[in-house]
Amino acid sequence: xxxxxxxxKFLSTSSFAHTSLVLFAYSIINPDILSLSNxxxxxxxxxxxxxxxxxxTWPWVTxxxxxxxxxxxxxxxxxxxxxxxxxxxxxxxIFTIETTYIIQRILDIAAIAGSISLFSEILTKxxxxxxxxxxxxxxxxxxxxSFTLSPWASYxxxxxxxxxxxxxxxxxxxxxxxxxxxxxxxxxxxxISYLIHYQYATFISVYFTxxxxxxxxxxxxxxxxxxxxPPTICKQLKNNYxxxxxxxxGLLVFPIxxxxxxxxxxxxxxxxxxxxxxSVASRIGIDGGLYNGGIVGSLQFLGGYKWTMCFSINNISMxxxxxxxxxxxxxxxxxxxxxISVVAISISALIGIYLLYKKDFPKKNTPNIWALxxxxxxxxxxxxxxxxxxxxxxxxxxxxxxxxxxAGIASLFYHTLIKQxxxxxxxxxxxxxxxxxxxxxxxxxITQRLLIQGV
Length: 455
What we know:
Layout: H1 2-13, H2 15-29, H3 43-51, H4 58-62, E1 64-66, E2 79-81, H5 86-91, H6 97-127, H7 133-149, H8 151-158, H9 164-179, H10 183-196, H11 198-218, H12 222-226, H13 231-236, H14 240-247, H15 253-267, H16 280-284, H17 294-298, H18 309-313, H19 326-356, H20 360-365, H21 370-385, H22 387-392, H23 394-397, H24 399-418, H25 422-452
Antiparallel strand pairs: 1-2
Helix pairs in contact: 2-6, 2-7, 6-7, 6-9, 7-24, 7-25, 8-24, 8-25, 9-10, 10-11, 11-14, 11-21, 19-24, 19-25
């Protein structure tokens, strides 16, 4: 009996158990999302890392593998981090390549589930600081559900071929350890996240460095503590120069990555001018390309995916738009209305994030707000700088927004409804169910589009 009570207590408090239950329920509603089809993984880069004769040495020397087939070097070699494929490399020692792809797919989904589990723990325990077990459980459920059902996370669950899931898992793992005053292992996890995503590493380091410099010059006032480093870093690294070195460590990742690319091309005896990938000017959107939407285009993450996806679901091209029938028109209009609804919900999430930053909040939770600050600052920096990328690759690049979205929704319901009388809590419950319904509709739409495209 005691064991049963212990299991039930674990299930009621464990964030990962909550996430697993939400994913299981969601897979019943939308089974295409969590399909274990091996076509959902980046097979070429795994294959290159596993078996290509030219790749037998250099990935282990540089920590890179190639997204594209290295036998077609005339079109450029697009490098990716080997670290995200290490589980597949280990699995391939035991299983066939087809089974290895499925295992990689399972681990990719697990990385997403683990990330939101850690984030809900951080939000509930350290940032919002819910007191009762009931409030903690409700907050976790709201956070995990709104994340999982959001179209941005749904895209990554459908096709996990971006850096962001494993990056966020490493970053949030680092945050958990730093919250627990485990400085060394927290720093190691942070450096791993830097190696996975050098762009975010740069902006996170810029944020930490700015906080360090601000605290050095402004002293130990309230403002410097709110926008400061993790308390465990300030405690362990009492020397300002050491804090500055820790803060700026992510700035070294980009030159190190470029050096590794040069070494890789030297090993496979290919000129460095065929290194693939978009240029910085292209990602920013100042190269004169046709797909640069500016700051308004990059803010499409509020809708989650391009508005033209409603036409692709109905297999209608822009050239034949005048020939659509009544049923197709109704379908397109409803699809667009769903998008507008998601935008409205996202704006509500922004209001919830504002509630987290109200003037009376930092005074109570000054040492704990740094994790949310880090994610917000780095995401906004990426959004404002790489405007072309956020306009074109709206699903993958908006994955980090799904965490902020879930934090905003959870904060909104917690501050406005959970603390209220029961009749308002009941209204809040039905309001959240309505939000979930809209998110499921939008996630179904994006799944349909991806299936039509044969992804």
